[in-house]
Amino acid sequence: MRMQTDGPLCGCGGHGCLEALASRTAIERDIRQGIAAGRKTVLAESVSDGAGVIRSNVLRRALEVKDELVQEVMTRAAQVLGLACMQIRQLLDPEVIVLGGGVIEACKSHILPIVLEVMASDGMAKRGRAGRSSSPAWATTRWCSAP
Ligand SMILES: [Zn+2]
Question: What's the 22 CA to ligand 1 centre distance in angstroms?
């Protein structure tokens, strides 16, 4: 799902896809870029040795200690995810949108409120033109996540 015409390169070969902006891989890329640019983060030491991936539980712990870089990157990713959910709702009006994966499981307390906030800002929903899933009750009671 293309979110930006000139966004970062995606694994599919395109640019600006949802995956390239909001996946764990994208979050890790942005955190590493922040560290390279001199930003301070509790993750600096763990990624400086080039070791492996930044796992979802590591992101959760960084959010719990209110790490500014991780909060900023995760918020931006959640906003893009919220826009994607808004577009899905506008186009398909599904009864349920299922968000799954390790990052959602580990960091849902940070991500989901932002997704819901973005969806609530939808002008079509505010005017009651976004179909059955336009009510805030839908947004707060229909979230679930895949195992
Ligand atoms: Zn792609």
Answer: 11
Closest CA to 49 of 73, 25, 32: 32
Question: What pLDDT digit, counting tens, does each position of 15-36 carry?
Answer: 999 999 999 999 999 999 999 9
Class of domain 18-141: alpha beta
Q: The pTM is what?
A: 0.84
- Distance between Cα 136 and ligand 1 center (Å): 30
**What is the distance in A from the centroid of ligand 1 to the CA of 33?**
20
Is residue 94 within 8 Å of 139, Cβ to Cβ?
A: no
* Location of structure tokens 């990157």: 73
User: Each residue of 47-57: pLDDT tens digit?
Assistant: 766 667 899 99
Q: Tell me how far the alpha carbon of residue 13 lies from the centroid of ligand 1, in angstroms.
A: 6
CA atoms of 107 and 14, how far apart (whole Å) = 27
Domain spans in the chain, listed from the N-terminal domain onward: 18-141
pLDDT, tens digit, for every residue of 61-82? 999 999 999 999 999 999 999 9
Q: Ligand 1 mean position to 135 CA, how many Å?
A: 30
